[in-house]
Amino acid sequence: MDARFTAEQDEIRRTLRELLHKRCGPEELRAAVDTPAGHDPALWTALAEQLGLPGLALPEDYGGAGCSVTELALACEETGRALAPSPLLATAVLTAPLLLALGTDAQRADLLPRIASGALTAALAVPGPALATALGLTGHDPSGEWAGGGRAGGVQARQADGGWRLYGQVDQVLDGHSARLLVVAAHTGGFARSRVLLFLVRGAAAGLTRVRQTALDATRGQARLQLRHVEAELLGHGGDDVLAALARLGDTAAACLAAEAVGAAGRVLERTVEYVGQREQFGRPIGSFQAVKHRLADVYVQVQAARSAAYYAAWATAQGERVGGLALAQALQALRGAGAEGIQSHGGIGVTWEHDVHLYFKRAAGDELLFGPVHRLRAHAADLAHVFEEAG
Protein backbone atom coordinates (compact mmCIF):
# COMPACT_ATOMS: atom_id res chain seq x y z
CA MET A 1 0.00 0.00 0.00
CA ASP A 2 1.35 3.41 -1.04
CA ALA A 3 0.27 5.91 1.64
CA ARG A 4 1.36 8.98 -0.31
CA PHE A 5 -1.29 11.28 -1.72
CA THR A 6 -1.62 11.56 -5.47
CA ALA A 7 -1.04 14.80 -7.33
CA GLU A 8 -4.79 15.09 -7.85
CA GLN A 9 -5.47 14.71 -4.12
CA ASP A 10 -2.86 17.32 -3.26
CA GLU A 11 -4.41 19.66 -5.81
CA ILE A 12 -7.87 19.23 -4.26
CA ARG A 13 -6.50 20.19 -0.86
CA ARG A 14 -4.46 23.14 -2.14
CA THR A 15 -7.22 24.62 -4.29
CA LEU A 16 -9.88 24.24 -1.61
CA ARG A 17 -7.64 25.76 1.07
CA GLU A 18 -6.93 28.77 -1.12
CA LEU A 19 -10.61 29.31 -1.90
CA LEU A 20 -11.67 29.04 1.74
CA HIS A 21 -8.86 31.38 2.79
CA LYS A 22 -10.24 34.01 0.42
CA ARG A 23 -13.95 33.42 0.94
CA CYS A 24 -14.35 32.09 4.49
CA GLY A 25 -12.27 34.16 6.88
CA PRO A 26 -13.42 34.97 10.43
CA GLU A 27 -15.63 37.88 9.36
CA GLU A 28 -17.24 35.94 6.51
CA LEU A 29 -17.79 32.96 8.82
CA ARG A 30 -19.61 35.02 11.44
CA ALA A 31 -21.71 36.76 8.82
CA ALA A 32 -22.70 33.44 7.23
CA VAL A 33 -23.88 31.75 10.43
CA ASP A 34 -26.12 34.74 11.20
CA THR A 35 -28.04 34.41 7.93
CA PRO A 36 -31.33 32.46 7.74
CA ALA A 37 -29.62 29.70 5.75
CA GLY A 38 -26.74 29.45 8.21
CA HIS A 39 -24.20 29.45 5.39
CA ASP A 40 -23.11 31.58 2.46
CA PRO A 41 -24.97 30.43 -0.70
CA ALA A 42 -22.42 32.23 -2.88
CA LEU A 43 -19.59 30.24 -1.30
CA TRP A 44 -21.51 27.01 -1.79
CA THR A 45 -22.00 27.89 -5.46
CA ALA A 46 -18.28 28.54 -5.81
CA LEU A 47 -17.42 25.23 -4.13
CA ALA A 48 -19.77 23.44 -6.52
CA GLU A 49 -18.95 25.21 -9.77
CA GLN A 50 -15.19 25.71 -9.33
CA LEU A 51 -14.29 22.53 -7.42
CA GLY A 52 -17.22 20.17 -7.93
CA LEU A 53 -17.26 19.49 -4.20
CA PRO A 54 -20.86 18.19 -3.82
CA GLY A 55 -20.25 15.53 -6.48
CA LEU A 56 -16.71 14.65 -5.52
CA ALA A 57 -17.56 11.06 -4.49
CA LEU A 58 -20.47 10.55 -6.93
CA PRO A 59 -20.07 8.50 -10.13
CA GLU A 60 -19.34 10.32 -13.36
CA ASP A 61 -22.59 8.94 -14.81
CA TYR A 62 -24.45 11.28 -12.47
CA GLY A 63 -22.27 14.33 -13.03
CA GLY A 64 -19.84 13.58 -10.22
CA ALA A 65 -16.07 13.37 -10.22
CA GLY A 66 -15.96 9.63 -9.51
CA CYS A 67 -13.53 9.99 -6.61
CA SER A 68 -13.35 7.85 -3.48
CA VAL A 69 -14.05 8.48 0.19
CA THR A 70 -10.43 9.56 0.57
CA GLU A 71 -10.89 12.63 -1.62
CA LEU A 72 -14.12 13.52 0.15
CA ALA A 73 -12.40 13.18 3.52
CA LEU A 74 -9.54 15.44 2.39
CA ALA A 75 -12.08 18.05 1.33
CA CYS A 76 -13.73 17.77 4.74
CA GLU A 77 -10.36 18.27 6.41
CA GLU A 78 -10.02 21.62 4.66
CA THR A 79 -13.56 22.74 5.45
CA GLY A 80 -12.87 21.73 9.05
CA ARG A 81 -9.78 23.94 9.18
CA ALA A 82 -11.93 26.94 8.31
CA LEU A 83 -14.99 25.74 10.27
CA ALA A 84 -16.74 26.55 7.00
CA PRO A 85 -20.53 26.41 7.38
CA SER A 86 -21.86 24.70 4.26
CA PRO A 87 -24.28 21.93 3.20
CA LEU A 88 -21.33 19.64 2.39
CA LEU A 89 -21.72 17.31 5.38
CA ALA A 90 -25.50 17.05 5.21
CA THR A 91 -25.68 16.78 1.42
CA ALA A 92 -22.57 15.01 0.14
CA VAL A 93 -21.62 12.92 3.18
CA LEU A 94 -24.90 11.95 4.87
CA THR A 95 -27.52 12.01 2.12
CA ALA A 96 -26.06 11.48 -1.37
CA PRO A 97 -24.61 8.01 -0.53
CA LEU A 98 -28.08 6.83 0.57
CA LEU A 99 -29.64 8.08 -2.66
CA LEU A 100 -26.94 6.29 -4.62
CA ALA A 101 -27.22 3.05 -2.67
CA LEU A 102 -31.00 2.76 -2.27
CA GLY A 103 -32.62 4.97 -4.89
CA THR A 104 -34.41 3.68 -7.97
CA ASP A 105 -32.89 4.37 -11.37
CA ALA A 106 -35.36 7.21 -11.86
CA GLN A 107 -34.63 8.73 -8.44
CA ARG A 108 -30.87 8.60 -8.96
CA ALA A 109 -31.15 10.09 -12.45
CA ASP A 110 -33.34 12.90 -11.15
CA LEU A 111 -31.61 13.80 -7.89
CA LEU A 112 -27.90 12.96 -8.07
CA PRO A 113 -26.96 15.21 -11.03
CA ARG A 114 -28.59 18.16 -9.26
CA ILE A 115 -26.74 17.36 -6.06
CA ALA A 116 -23.46 17.06 -7.96
CA SER A 117 -24.00 20.49 -9.53
CA GLY A 118 -24.77 22.08 -6.16
CA ALA A 119 -28.28 23.07 -7.26
CA LEU A 120 -29.95 20.66 -4.81
CA THR A 121 -29.06 20.47 -1.13
CA ALA A 122 -30.29 17.62 1.04
CA ALA A 123 -30.47 16.55 4.67
CA LEU A 124 -30.92 13.29 6.56
CA ALA A 125 -33.69 13.39 9.19
CA VAL A 126 -33.40 10.77 11.93
CA PRO A 127 -35.94 10.99 14.78
CA GLY A 128 -34.71 11.82 18.25
CA PRO A 129 -31.11 12.41 19.33
CA ALA A 130 -30.16 9.08 17.75
CA LEU A 131 -28.14 9.92 14.67
CA ALA A 132 -25.04 8.14 16.01
CA THR A 133 -27.10 5.01 16.78
CA ALA A 134 -28.82 5.06 13.40
CA LEU A 135 -25.41 5.23 11.69
CA GLY A 136 -24.09 2.37 13.80
CA LEU A 137 -21.39 4.49 15.44
CA THR A 138 -22.28 4.10 19.11
CA GLY A 139 -24.45 1.01 19.11
CA HIS A 140 -26.36 -1.56 17.13
CA ASP A 141 -30.15 -1.49 17.06
CA PRO A 142 -31.48 -4.19 14.69
CA SER A 143 -35.08 -3.28 15.50
CA GLY A 144 -34.76 0.38 14.57
CA GLU A 145 -36.27 1.54 17.86
CA TRP A 146 -34.60 4.94 17.35
CA ALA A 147 -37.13 5.68 14.58
CA GLY A 148 -40.14 5.32 16.86
CA GLY A 149 -40.50 1.59 17.36
CA GLY A 150 -43.87 1.50 15.66
CA ARG A 151 -45.44 3.28 18.62
CA ALA A 152 -46.24 6.92 19.24
CA GLY A 153 -43.21 9.14 18.83
CA GLY A 154 -40.63 9.44 16.12
CA VAL A 155 -42.01 9.48 12.59
CA GLN A 156 -44.72 7.17 11.31
CA ALA A 157 -45.44 6.45 7.64
CA ARG A 158 -48.84 5.38 6.34
CA GLN A 159 -50.10 4.63 2.89
CA ALA A 160 -52.93 6.93 1.83
CA ASP A 161 -54.41 8.15 -1.44
CA GLY A 162 -52.11 5.91 -3.44
CA GLY A 163 -48.99 7.31 -1.84
CA TRP A 164 -47.27 7.79 1.50
CA ARG A 165 -47.93 10.28 4.27
CA LEU A 166 -45.61 11.05 7.18
CA TYR A 167 -46.51 12.11 10.71
CA GLY A 168 -44.20 13.03 13.56
CA GLN A 169 -41.34 15.23 14.63
CA VAL A 170 -37.59 15.16 14.09
CA ASP A 171 -35.14 17.22 16.14
CA GLN A 172 -31.50 18.05 15.42
CA VAL A 173 -31.57 17.74 11.62
CA LEU A 174 -28.31 19.08 10.22
CA ASP A 175 -29.14 21.81 7.68
CA GLY A 176 -32.78 20.73 7.89
CA HIS A 177 -33.94 24.36 7.86
CA SER A 178 -32.44 25.10 4.44
CA ALA A 179 -32.19 21.78 2.57
CA ARG A 180 -34.40 21.52 -0.49
CA LEU A 181 -34.70 17.75 -0.12
CA LEU A 182 -35.16 15.73 3.07
CA VAL A 183 -34.49 12.02 3.46
CA VAL A 184 -36.64 11.03 6.44
CA ALA A 185 -36.36 7.76 8.37
CA ALA A 186 -39.81 6.56 9.43
CA HIS A 187 -41.51 3.48 10.84
CA THR A 188 -44.28 1.74 8.96
CA GLY A 189 -46.32 -1.41 9.49
CA GLY A 190 -47.54 -0.66 13.00
CA PHE A 191 -46.21 -2.22 16.18
CA ALA A 192 -46.54 -5.89 15.14
CA ARG A 193 -44.77 -5.69 11.78
CA SER A 194 -42.88 -2.42 12.02
CA ARG A 195 -39.80 -1.67 9.95
CA VAL A 196 -37.75 1.38 9.06
CA LEU A 197 -37.95 2.86 5.60
CA LEU A 198 -36.54 6.04 4.08
CA PHE A 199 -38.72 8.62 2.37
CA LEU A 200 -38.08 11.64 0.18
CA VAL A 201 -39.78 14.86 1.24
CA ARG A 202 -39.52 18.10 -0.71
CA GLY A 203 -38.51 21.10 1.35
CA ALA A 204 -41.64 23.01 0.34
CA ALA A 205 -44.07 20.14 1.00
CA ALA A 206 -47.44 21.03 2.50
CA GLY A 207 -47.72 20.16 6.18
CA LEU A 208 -43.96 20.41 6.78
CA THR A 209 -42.79 22.95 9.36
CA ARG A 210 -39.08 23.67 9.74
CA VAL A 211 -37.65 25.74 12.56
CA ARG A 212 -33.97 26.51 12.91
CA GLN A 213 -32.68 25.65 16.38
CA THR A 214 -30.13 27.41 18.54
CA ALA A 215 -27.13 25.08 18.67
CA LEU A 216 -23.96 24.96 20.75
CA ASP A 217 -21.95 24.96 17.53
CA ALA A 218 -23.31 27.81 15.43
CA THR A 219 -21.32 26.63 12.40
CA ARG A 220 -23.51 23.51 12.17
CA GLY A 221 -27.06 24.65 11.48
CA GLN A 222 -29.77 22.41 12.94
CA ALA A 223 -33.53 22.38 12.63
CA ARG A 224 -36.63 20.82 14.12
CA LEU A 225 -39.03 19.30 11.61
CA GLN A 226 -42.72 18.78 12.23
CA LEU A 227 -44.56 16.59 9.73
CA ARG A 228 -48.35 16.62 9.61
CA HIS A 229 -49.83 14.50 6.84
CA VAL A 230 -46.83 15.31 4.65
CA GLU A 231 -46.71 13.74 1.22
CA ALA A 232 -43.60 11.60 0.74
CA GLU A 233 -42.00 9.34 -1.81
CA LEU A 234 -40.51 5.99 -0.82
CA LEU A 235 -36.76 5.88 -1.41
CA GLY A 236 -36.03 2.80 -3.50
CA HIS A 237 -38.42 -0.11 -3.78
CA GLY A 238 -38.89 -0.75 -0.07
CA GLY A 239 -37.20 -4.13 -0.07
CA ASP A 240 -33.72 -2.92 0.79
CA ASP A 241 -32.19 -3.29 4.25
CA VAL A 242 -32.28 0.33 5.34
CA LEU A 243 -30.56 -0.33 8.66
CA ALA A 244 -27.62 -2.02 6.92
CA ALA A 245 -27.37 0.87 4.45
CA LEU A 246 -27.29 3.36 7.30
CA ALA A 247 -24.54 1.36 9.03
CA ARG A 248 -22.46 1.39 5.85
CA LEU A 249 -23.04 5.12 5.59
CA GLY A 250 -21.83 5.45 9.18
CA ASP A 251 -18.35 4.24 8.25
CA THR A 252 -18.06 6.81 5.46
CA ALA A 253 -19.49 9.60 7.58
CA ALA A 254 -17.17 8.79 10.49
CA ALA A 255 -14.10 8.91 8.25
CA CYS A 256 -15.14 12.29 6.84
CA LEU A 257 -16.03 13.66 10.27
CA ALA A 258 -12.69 12.46 11.64
CA ALA A 259 -10.84 14.26 8.85
CA GLU A 260 -12.92 17.38 9.45
CA ALA A 261 -12.11 17.31 13.18
CA VAL A 262 -8.42 16.81 12.42
CA GLY A 263 -8.46 19.86 10.15
CA ALA A 264 -10.03 21.95 12.89
CA ALA A 265 -7.62 20.62 15.54
CA GLY A 266 -4.60 21.32 13.36
CA ARG A 267 -5.74 24.86 12.66
CA VAL A 268 -6.46 25.82 16.28
CA LEU A 269 -3.06 24.38 17.25
CA GLU A 270 -1.38 26.50 14.56
CA ARG A 271 -3.12 29.61 15.85
CA THR A 272 -2.16 28.83 19.44
CA VAL A 273 1.50 28.25 18.56
CA GLU A 274 1.52 31.55 16.68
CA TYR A 275 -0.01 33.37 19.65
CA VAL A 276 2.36 31.99 22.33
CA GLY A 277 5.27 33.07 20.14
CA GLN A 278 4.02 36.66 20.29
CA ARG A 279 2.59 37.01 23.79
CA GLU A 280 5.26 38.14 26.24
CA GLN A 281 5.44 37.64 29.99
CA PHE A 282 8.41 38.43 32.22
CA GLY A 283 10.17 39.90 29.21
CA ARG A 284 9.99 36.82 26.96
CA PRO A 285 7.42 35.00 24.79
CA ILE A 286 5.32 32.60 26.82
CA GLY A 287 5.98 29.98 24.15
CA SER A 288 9.57 29.82 25.38
CA PHE A 289 8.46 28.49 28.78
CA GLN A 290 9.01 24.77 29.13
CA ALA A 291 5.57 24.13 30.61
CA VAL A 292 3.86 25.71 27.61
CA LYS A 293 6.09 23.80 25.19
CA HIS A 294 5.25 20.48 26.83
CA ARG A 295 1.52 21.10 26.79
CA LEU A 296 1.46 22.06 23.13
CA ALA A 297 3.79 19.20 22.23
CA ASP A 298 1.26 16.80 23.75
CA VAL A 299 -1.48 18.38 21.63
CA TYR A 300 0.69 18.07 18.51
CA VAL A 301 1.18 14.35 19.12
CA GLN A 302 -2.57 13.86 19.59
CA VAL A 303 -3.38 15.74 16.39
CA GLN A 304 -0.83 13.82 14.33
CA ALA A 305 -2.08 10.49 15.67
CA ALA A 306 -5.65 11.49 14.91
CA ARG A 307 -4.66 12.58 11.40
CA SER A 308 -3.07 9.20 10.70
CA ALA A 309 -6.17 7.42 12.01
CA ALA A 310 -8.48 9.58 9.89
CA TYR A 311 -6.48 8.99 6.71
CA TYR A 312 -6.40 5.25 7.34
CA ALA A 313 -10.14 5.18 8.03
CA ALA A 314 -10.85 6.96 4.74
CA TRP A 315 -8.78 4.37 2.86
CA ALA A 316 -10.06 1.39 4.84
CA THR A 317 -13.73 2.27 4.40
CA ALA A 318 -13.43 1.55 0.68
CA GLN A 319 -11.95 -1.85 1.59
CA GLY A 320 -14.91 -2.76 3.78
CA GLU A 321 -13.17 -2.28 7.13
CA ARG A 322 -15.17 -0.73 9.97
CA VAL A 323 -12.69 1.57 11.66
CA GLY A 324 -14.38 4.91 11.11
CA GLY A 325 -15.85 5.13 14.60
CA LEU A 326 -12.48 4.57 16.24
CA ALA A 327 -10.85 7.22 14.05
CA LEU A 328 -13.65 9.63 14.87
CA ALA A 329 -13.15 9.07 18.59
CA GLN A 330 -9.44 9.81 18.23
CA ALA A 331 -10.10 12.94 16.19
CA LEU A 332 -12.77 14.34 18.50
CA GLN A 333 -10.53 13.84 21.49
CA ALA A 334 -7.69 15.61 19.69
CA LEU A 335 -9.95 18.51 18.72
CA ARG A 336 -11.28 18.88 22.26
CA GLY A 337 -7.73 18.87 23.62
CA ALA A 338 -6.48 21.36 21.03
CA GLY A 339 -9.46 23.64 21.65
CA ALA A 340 -9.05 23.51 25.42
CA GLU A 341 -5.31 24.26 25.24
CA GLY A 342 -6.03 27.06 22.80
CA ILE A 343 -8.42 28.69 25.25
CA GLN A 344 -5.99 28.16 28.12
CA SER A 345 -3.05 29.65 26.21
CA HIS A 346 -5.08 32.64 25.07
CA GLY A 347 -6.36 33.21 28.59
CA GLY A 348 -4.11 36.20 29.18
CA ILE A 349 -6.14 38.34 26.80
CA GLY A 350 -9.49 37.03 27.99
CA VAL A 351 -11.28 34.79 25.46
CA THR A 352 -14.62 36.36 24.55
CA TRP A 353 -17.31 35.80 21.93
CA GLU A 354 -15.31 38.00 19.57
CA HIS A 355 -12.33 35.62 19.61
CA ASP A 356 -12.40 32.65 17.22
CA VAL A 357 -10.71 30.06 19.43
CA HIS A 358 -13.89 29.20 21.31
CA LEU A 359 -15.55 28.14 18.05
CA TYR A 360 -13.15 25.20 17.73
CA PHE A 361 -13.89 23.97 21.22
CA LYS A 362 -17.62 24.23 20.51
CA ARG A 363 -17.18 22.25 17.31
CA ALA A 364 -15.62 19.41 19.35
CA ALA A 365 -18.32 19.54 22.02
CA GLY A 366 -21.11 19.80 19.44
CA ASP A 367 -19.84 16.88 17.38
CA GLU A 368 -19.57 14.72 20.50
CA LEU A 369 -23.22 15.46 21.26
CA LEU A 370 -24.25 14.56 17.70
CA PHE A 371 -21.95 11.65 16.86
CA GLY A 372 -20.41 10.49 20.14
CA PRO A 373 -19.44 10.71 22.91
CA VAL A 374 -15.86 9.49 22.57
CA HIS A 375 -16.13 6.72 25.16
CA ARG A 376 -19.21 5.25 23.43
CA LEU A 377 -17.55 5.39 20.02
CA ARG A 378 -14.62 3.42 21.43
CA ALA A 379 -16.81 0.98 23.34
CA HIS A 380 -18.83 0.14 20.23
CA ALA A 381 -15.64 -0.26 18.17
CA ALA A 382 -14.38 -2.68 20.82
CA ASP A 383 -17.64 -4.63 20.61
CA LEU A 384 -17.37 -4.89 16.83
CA ALA A 385 -13.80 -6.18 17.18
CA HIS A 386 -14.83 -8.61 19.99
CA VAL A 387 -12.07 -7.16 22.15
CA PHE A 388 -13.61 -8.03 25.50
CA GLU A 389 -15.16 -11.38 24.64
CA GLU A 390 -13.77 -14.39 26.43
CA ALA A 391 -12.15 -17.04 24.28
CA GLY A 392 -14.58 -19.90 23.78
Automatic annotation (TrEMBL):
<dbReference type="InterPro" id="IPR009075">
    <property type="entry name" value="AcylCo_DH/oxidase_C"/>
</dbReference>
<comment type="similarity">
    <text>Belongs to the acyl-CoA dehydrogenase family.</text>
</comment>
<dbReference type="InterPro" id="IPR046373">
    <property type="entry name" value="Acyl-CoA_Oxase/DH_mid-dom_sf"/>
</dbReference>
<dbReference type="GO" id="GO:0016491">
    <property type="term" value="F:oxidoreductase activity"/>
</dbReference>
<feature type="domain" description="Acyl-CoA dehydrogenase/oxidase C-terminal">
    <location>
        <begin position="255"/>
        <end position="375"/>
    </location>
</feature>
<dbReference type="InterPro" id="IPR009100">
    <property type="entry name" value="AcylCoA_DH/oxidase_NM_dom_sf"/>
</dbReference>
<keyword id="KW-0560">Oxidoreductase</keyword>
<feature type="domain" description="Acyl-CoA dehydrogenase/oxidase N-terminal">
    <location>
        <begin position="6"/>
        <end position="118"/>
    </location>
</feature>
<keyword id="KW-0274">FAD</keyword>
<dbReference type="Pfam" id="PF00441">
    <property type="entry name" value="Acyl-CoA_dh_1"/>
</dbReference>
<dbReference type="InterPro" id="IPR036250">
    <property type="entry name" value="AcylCo_DH-like_C"/>
</dbReference>
<dbReference type="Pfam" id="PF02771">
    <property type="entry name" value="Acyl-CoA_dh_N"/>
</dbReference>
<protein>
    <submittedName>
        <fullName>Acyl-CoA dehydrogenase family protein</fullName>
        <ecNumber>1.-.-.-</ecNumber>
    </submittedName>
</protein>
<dbReference type="InterPro" id="IPR013786">
    <property type="entry name" value="AcylCoA_DH/ox_N"/>
</dbReference>
<dbReference type="InterPro" id="IPR037069">
    <property type="entry name" value="AcylCoA_DH/ox_N_sf"/>
</dbReference>
<keyword id="KW-0285">Flavoprotein</keyword>
